[in-house]
Design goal:
Layout lengths: L9 H12 L3 E5 L12 H5 L1 E2 L11 E7 L13 E5 L6 E2 L4 E8 L2 E5 L4 E5 L2 E11 L2 E6 L5 H4 L2 H15 L4
Parallel strand pairs: 1-10
Antiparallel strand pairs: 2-5, 3-4, 3-6, 6-9, 7-8, 9-10
Length: 172
């Protein structure tokens, strides 16, 4: 079946940028940070994220999410937790993101891409959630949330609620 074209027009892109810049909030979950081909400056809003053809992740599975900034409003009521999800790697990231959760992964080789070819994936600590300012607006990014199983994790649910609360609260 043919998929609909979901590309935002230039006017729609400008409308979203102006909406956020004016002091509104924007919440991005999971793949919503993916850089659209027709909108190369989208990552200026999100602070980075997935780049098709560059980014990758180990196979879907359970891992531990670490609260890396305990005082951050995004993690209110949340401590380290396990969740089934995808651990994104190879992302575009800007230096001014306020990262509040991360996860660690061991170096390894995993099947990747349409042909499931072996791909080396680095070990390290990877950001999974951050906030940032865009103009007078607030942007909340949570890379978790691949599917219904990950949505059932209570800590994930709390992170989403915290993000909505933070992004929509009037700035001080």
């Amino acid at each position: 079946p043919d998929l609909p074209d979901l590309t935002l027009s230039t006017a729609e892109q400008d409308g979203l940028k102006n909406f956020i810049r004016s002091g509104k909030g924007f919440v991005c979950l999971h793949i919503s940070t993916c850089l659209p081909k027709a909108w190369p400056d989208y990552h200026e809003i999100t602070g980075g994220g997935w780049i098709t053809g560059t980014s990758f992740h180990p196979p879907y599975g359970e891992f531990t999410v670490h609260v890396s900034a305990p005082g951050h409003p995004g993690v209110r009521g949340v401590s380290d937790f396990k969740t089934p999800d995808e651990l994104y790697m190879g992302l575009a990231l800007t230096a001014d993101n306020d990262v509040f959760i991360t996860a660690d992964a061991a170096e390894g080789t995993h099947p990747w891409g349409p042909e499931r070819q072996p791909k080396h994936m680095p070990g390290g600590t990877f950001p999974l959630g951050w906030t940032r300012r865009y103009g007078d607006g607030k942007v909340f990014v949570l890379l978790l949330g691949h599917d219904g199983r990950s949505f059932q994790t209570p800590a994930f649910q709390q992170l989403v609620l915290n993000g909505v609360d933070w992004a929509t609260a009037p700035s001080a």
